[in-house]
Design brief:
single chain, alpha+beta, Immunoglobulin-like, four-stranded mixed β-sheet, elongated, binds copper (II) ion
Length: about 150
């Protein structure tokens, strides 16, 4: 008699386990997966580009008479190749990287340095969308630059 009872309990245990598994699989398919795919899906090559573009804010940039400030002033990037930029302030004066018009990247968020970039400091941004951006330095509006990001040709 006691043998029958324990195997009966065992059977219920199996059923509970199967129901629990079915419930978690449905949860995964109905709620977890749809939510996961809502977020922007970005190619691995764009998240980890093989090359990084470097732009320097050169000494003397704080002077309106000096033509060169952001070096180089114009950069063309390709998504999945070199869509990341690092700005380095090699000048003695603090500068900013400020877009002429606000730009928000779906993955990286708002573009532009928060506050100033002091001498020796850097600002970096990963671009994940094809876009053209004009930017400047807030305290020195004659400091201007342009970034053109294109889809990869491959
Ligand atoms: Cu500046």
């Amino acid at each position: 008699m006691s043998v029958v009872t324990s195997s009966h309990v065992y059977g219920i245990g199996i059923i509970v386990l199967i129901v629990a598994m079915a419930a978690s699989i449905s949860y995964y398919q109905l709620f977890y997966l749809p939510e996961k795919f809502e977020k922007p899906e970005i190619e691995e090559a764009i998240l980890n580009p093989i090359k990084v573009i470097e732009i320097d804010m050169i000494p003397g940039s704080a002077s309106a008479e000096q033509q060169d400030n952001f070096m180089p002033k114009l950069v063309r990037l390709q998504l999945g190749i070199d869509n990341k930029i690092i700005w380095t302030n090699i000048d003695e004066t603090p500068h900013t990287v400020t877009p002429d018009l606000p730009h928000e990247d779906a993955y990286s968020g708002e573009f532009g340095s928060r506050g100033v970039i002091k001498s020796g400091e850097t600002y970096e941004f990963l671009f994940t969308e094809a876009v053209k951006i004009a930017y400047h330095c807030e305290p020195h509006p004659w400091m201007t630059g342009t970034i053109i990001i294109k889809e990869s040709r491959f």
